[in-house]
Design a protein that fits this description.
- By secondary structure, the chain is α/β, with parallel strands linked by helices.
- The protein folds into 2 domains: about 5-290 and about 485-515, Nucleotidyltransferase, domain 5; about 345-480 and about 520-545, ATPase, nucleotide binding domain (Nucleotidyltransferase, domain 5), CATH 3.30.420.40.
- Helices cover about 40% and strands about 20% of the residues.
- Strands 1, 2, 3, 5, 11, 12 and 13 form a 7-stranded mixed β-sheet that branches. A 7-stranded mixed β-sheet has the order 16-17-15-14-20-21-22, with helices on both faces.
- The structure holds adenosine-5'-diphosphate and ribulose-5-phosphate.
- Ribulose-5-phosphate binds near residues 19, 137, 305, 307 and 309.
- Its EC number is 2.7.1.16.
- Belongs to the ribulokinase family.
- One of its GO terms (biological process) is L-arabinose catabolic process to D-xylulose 5-phosphate.
């Protein structure tokens, strides 16, 4: 430890991880990364998928279209007011010893605001307008806009397109912004800033709006210092020409930099000292890499929870087909940071547990004293590879890599009258592992080899799942040492922003942790999975690359039917 670092021996930092359903605060000792206390606060309004909450609309019933996913900004503030003080109390540390706070957020999650950061849904007259709310990362209703962006960028030979593997996702800022303009021009006009939630929460903490380099690059298409040109934007829609200038352009902050100081208002919310360092915002996936000490080239970190993000640093710039993006310094300064992802992973298992499991399974799980997930996992673990006779496609939340198409959907092939819930559960786990192998192969064959898979996130607790991933990918799996990878990653950025470490690599060395080779591939299972992976790939290419467009047609059929039903209901 250097003399400078020694000053911080009894200093603490707070990391706050904003997930899909809740925010988690973690108090960490600066000198060694020891986690002393944490608290979770679920968002009061969770994810809005069917209607706006009547407590906010003044009782008005406002239905949402299919594929929408919104959130409420006040729910994010409550995490600061509830989870941060609770974590400090649980840690039993003197709040005056806390020297910094940092946050990470789901992304791309967008807040439309006034020039001072007031979210539009909080502005008089806008609480019943769906477009005035936060568009969550898994808002998948902007695919039509994404398709136009991709076609036009390819036709014009826009150089930035290659940095996104040739396709921008409908989840990213540009598609969501264009949807806002085209579906509610009034809310678009009133939007003075179109802000990543990762930056909005930092703005709330310190009163300064700094765009973080990570989401600006991966989600905002900022490459080599420039956004897509006004010419390109005007060709999409003339009213979109000044989008960059009027909605998103803002000074960029590097990861681990200090965005500002904790304001008096945020100090009162959190119980932390006014004036301490507030770090530049970051994305939940990217912040986890240093928490797992995975900052070297070839170490792919898979953050596996509701969705999976794959992030990896590399020394070379390559075009990986269907990747989410490559950004200079997107994970740590001095390396190219690559990202890929699967929009649905734990969400698919959660959907099956909630909507596809008969009462007898719930009764058996309750009798065994375990959750339905754990029960189905225990039953499925007794099977040989392939015994269920199934192959599934993991597209229940669309496909973010490598096809980049959110109008694709899930599929299970091979079901018979003998098929049981644990069979489908296992096939879904395997499908997500095949999805990860597809991504790894895309990286490796593009000259960005993956040498190690480091797993973070809630799914690492499922040992069957972890073994399946090791067997399917033929890679040893390391596991991040913390159960709160993203929150620890944020804490580490807070320590750098507070000046306790010179940079993220130094903080990762002192505060991060990883257990290496926890799951190793079993060759017999790996061979059996090779055969199933070939079947997965055949289905993947058939349904995902134009062999049969039935999934797209069914989306249209569904949207039309929902509109017909609503029109009939409104008329009656
Ligand atoms: N035993 C389990 N095995 C597999 N998936 C699980 C299990 N328990 C919960 N899940 C799924 O894990 C996801 C939550 O993961 P977590 O990492 O805690 O959340 P997040 O991604 O929001 O940070 C949910 O989608 C849930 O369906
Ligand atoms: O796109 C992402 C990061 O770039 C993540 O998938 C998104 O933020 C959701 O994360 P989680 O599954 O942990 O809730």
């Amino acid at each position: 430890m250097t003399e400078h670092e020694h000053d911080h021996e009894d200093a603490y930092v707070v990391g706050v991880d904003y997930g899909t359903l809740s925010g988690r605060a973690l108090v960490v000792r600066v000198s060694d990364g020891a986690e002393l206390g944490s608290a979770v606060h679920p968002y009061r309004h969770a994810v809005l998928e069917r209607c706006l909450p009547s407590d906010l609309t003044g009782g008005a019933e406002v239905a949402l279209e299919p594929d929408w996913a919104l959130q409420v900004p006040q729910d994010y503030r409550e995490v600061l007011q509830v989870a941060v003080p609770a974590a400090v109390e649980a840690a039993g540390v003197d709040p005056s010893r806390v020297i910094g706070i940092a946050t990470d957020f789901t992304a791309c999650t967008m807040v439309p605001t006034l020039h001072d950061g007031t979210p539009l849904n909080e502005v008089d007259g806008y609480a019943d307008r769906p477009h005035a709310y936060v568009k969550l990362w898994k808002h998948h209703a902007a695919q039509a806009q994404a398709d136009r962006i991709n076609a036009l960028a390819a036709q014009r030979g826009e150089t930035w397109l290659a940095r996104y593997g040739g396709l921008l996702s409908s989840e990213w800022e540009l598609a969501k912004g264009l949807q806002l303009l085209e579906e509610d021009p009034d809310v678009y006009a009133r939007t003075e800033r179109w802000v990543e939630a990762a930056d909005w929460i930092v703005w709330e903490l310190c009163g300064t709006y700094v765009r973080n380099a990570c989401s600006a690059g991966y989600k905002g298409v900022l490459q080599d210092g420039a956004y897509p040109s006004a010419d390109f934007l005007a060709a999409l829609n003339p009213a979109f020409a000044d989008y960059v200038e009027t909605k998103v352009e803002q000074p960029i902050g590097q990861l681990g930099d200090r965005a500002g100081s904790l304001s008096a208002r945020a100090a009162a919310w959190t119980g932390l000292p006014e004036g301490i360092a507030v770090a530049v915002g970051n994305v939940d996936a990217h912040v986890s890499a240093p928490a797992a000490q995975a900052v070297d080239h070839g170490q792919m970190v898979a953050i596996m929870g509701t969705s999976t993000c794959h992030v990896m640093s590399a020394g070379v710039l390559r075009e990986v087909p269907g990747m989410c993006g490559v950004v200079d310094g997107g994970i740590v300064a001095g390396s190219w940071g690559y990202e890929a992802g699967q929009s649905g992973v734990g969400d698919i298992f959660g959907w099956f547990v909630e909507h596809g499991v008969p009462p007898y399974i719930h009764a058996e799980a309750a009798a065994a004293g375990r959750s339905v997930h754990e029960h189905l996992t225990a039953l499925a673990a007794q099977q040989e590879v392939g015994e269920h006779g199934l192959v599934a496609l993991d597209w229940h939340s669309g496909n973010r890599s490598v096809l980049v198409d959110h109008e694709l959907s899930g599929l299970v092939v091979g079901q018979t009258l003998a098929t049981r819930p644990e069979d489908v559960y296992r096939a879904l786990i395997e499908a997500t592992a095949f999805g990860t192998r597809t991504i790894i192969e895309a990286f490796t064959s593009s000259g960005v080899p993956v040498e190690e898979l480091v797993v973070a996130g809630g799914l690492s607790k499922n040992h069957l799942l972890m073994q399946v991933y090791a067997d399917v990918t033929r890679l040893p799996l390391s596991v991040v040492g913390s159960e709160q990878g993203p929150a620890l990653g944020s804490a580490l950025h807070a320590a750098v922003a507070a000046g306790a470490y010179a940079d993220i690599r130094a903080a990762a060395k002192a505060m991060g942790s990883v257990q290496r080779g926890v799951f190793v591939p079993d060759e017999e299972s790996a061979l059996a999975y090779d055969a199933l992976f070939a079947e997965y790939t055949a289905l993947h290419d058939h349904f995902g690359r134009g062999g049969n467009d039935v999934m797209h047609r069914l989306r249209t059929v569904r949207r039309d039917a929902v509109r017909r039903r609503r029109t009939r209901k409104d008329a009656s």
